[in-house]
Design brief:
The structure is a single chain. This protein is mainly β. Helix content is about 5%, strand content about 45%. The longest helix is centred in the N-terminal third of the chain and has 5 residues, at about 10-15. The two termini are about 15 Å apart.
Amino acid sequence: MTAWLAGMRITAGRLLTHTSTITTAGLAAAAGFSVNDFRGARSGNTVVLDMYVQRTGAAIALVGGQLPDTDICTAPSGWRPAAGPVNGDWDDGICTGGFVIATSGLCTLRTSTADIATSRNLRLHISFIVE
């Protein structure tokens, strides 16, 4: 893989030597959730995570219109932000919301447009840069 340095010019040869790293293993579900699918991709210092998780516990009800912070999963080591927490988006086909991933890899649901029912499948997506 080409190490891009300041001042380097893009050439066909350099572009052809680029490779991405992919993982589909290591996502750990929090209590009350199970992992349906996971895909992480790294290209240079950019990381993209797609996490597909099912709610197996009791429904999570909004309290005063707000979702209680709820841990949902933990990303594998090497696939976490290094500089600080990063915000991402999620949806389940009915409602949407936001979540945060910490440097520990812990993903926590922070907002939702509606209650999260048992058996709902949540799709979490996030991208971030690691140094």
